[in-house]
Design brief:
Elements lengths: L1 H15 L3 E6 L5 H11 L2 E6 L3 H8 L3 H16 L4 E4 L2 H9 L7 E3 L13 H8 L6 E6 L9 H13 L3 E6 L5 H8 L3 H4 E2 L6 H8 L2 E5 L12 H8 L3 E4 L5 H9 L2 E4 L4 H12 L2 H18 L2 H14 L8 H4 L2 H6 L11
Helix pairs in contact: 1-2, 3-4, 6-10, 7-13, 11-14
Length: 345
């Protein structure tokens, strides 16, 4: 798939002769035609790193050690040869700098939330979804893949059932591991899983939950930064994150104060964190408000797009000037969304 895309991308470059080529990684092979044709077409090449291929293969154990090392080598080989790199979190920049990329050639430009919350009737939404008012709904919404390790959340639900807890874990979405998780859940499947919801109902489900769950497989640290956190924060519900303390997700949770963080792989600690929010509704609401504030201040499309525009315009010109510095004073002052004083949990 990537090889065909790279071939067609190269043909398009020859036809359209752009002044700049931006690749979004992971899509490593697409960089090859951009770099090979650069001396002839004289365009600049930038990469927006959303995930790190080498770290993904290493941390998930896919493909074996040799494949992971070869992929990491290819990734760095290509990134060293582009005119600029933008990453979505400082965790990525630290890894790339440690691997030998000059720090001044890497800009940190966060993703932004792409959803708008409908402000739907929570009680009506819960009735539609079959959630009782005496249940504390802990919702995980999104992809069911290898890096999420969602069998850990099924373990939490099994433990909650054994203890007679009011916590109900719900997994909303689809993905490559859904059938495996279905088998793993066994008799818990019908109560735990929800099929993907259409736009509008999906956002309403986030608002109707009592807390939102992030779960990463133990050992996942540097391969990615979960994009679902931007959506979770916008929903205004408290977040419980099961992740490595050194991960980008843990860093975002600390910066936002949007909820609680526990180490991945410990079902008992995760259930205890969820139950602590259930027993302290005022604190839970404050965490939700903190997340909304953080999203409004730091995760807006206006701010990130302004940084991306400045970064693209500066590719190959001044290697020591960051995208943030390239913004005009007016753009810097208006790139965030104003908000009231931040609430404290």
């Amino acid at each position: 798939m990537e090889a065909v895309f790279a071939l067609r991308a190269g043909m398009r470059l020859v036809r359209e002769r752009p002044s700049a080529v931006i690749a979004v990684s992971p899509a490593l092979l697409a960089l090859l035609p951009a770099l090979l044709l650069r001396p002839v077409l004289r365009h600049r090449v930038g990469v927006v790193v959303q995930d790190l291929y080498g770290a993904a293969l290493s941390e998930t154990g896919l493909g074996g050690g040799l494949v992971a090392r070869a992929t990491a080598w290819l990734e760095l080989f290509l990134l060293r040869r582009v005119d600029g790199v933008a990453v979505i979190h400082d965790v990525f920049r630290r890894r790339l700098v440690a691997a030998g990329l000059p720090k001044h050639r890497i800009d940190v430009i966060p993703n932004w939330s792409h959803v708008t919350m409908p402000g739907a009737d929570r009680a009506a939404t819960r009735r539609d979804l079959g959630w009782r008012e005496d249940e504390f709904i802990a919702l995980h919404a999104g992809n069911m893949g290898a890096k999420q390790g969602l069998e850990g959340l099924i373990d939490v639900q099994r433990l909650a059932k054994e203890r007679g807890s009011a916590v109900r874990v719900v997994l909303l979405g689809d993905g490559a591991r859904r059938e495996y998780l279905r088998d793993y859940a066994g008799e818990l499947f019908d109560a735990t899983f929800l099929d993907p919801l259409p736009k509008g109902r999906f956002e309403a489900a986030l608002e109707a939950a009592d807390c939102l769950l992030l779960h990463e497989r133990p050992g996942v640290v540097e391969m990615s930064v979960p994009s679902k956190l931007t959506t979770y924060f916008t929903a205004g519900r408290p977040v419980v994150a099961a992740t490595d303390p050194a991960s980008g997700a843990a860093a975002l949770m600390a910066l936002s104060d949007a909820g609680l963080t526990v180490r991945a792989g410990d079902a008992g600690s995760l259930l205890a964190a969820i139950e602590s929010l259930a027993s302290a509704p005022a604190i839970a609401e404050a965490h939700g408000a903190n997340g909304q504030y953080y999203a409004a201040e730091h995760l807006t499309g206006a701010r990130s797009l302004a940084l991306i525009e400045a970064w693209i315009e500066g590719l190959g010109r001044d290697p020591f000037r960051s995208a943030e510095a390239a913004l005009s004073p007016v753009a810097r002052s208006t790139s965030g969304t104003s908000a009231s004083d931040r609430p404290a949990a």
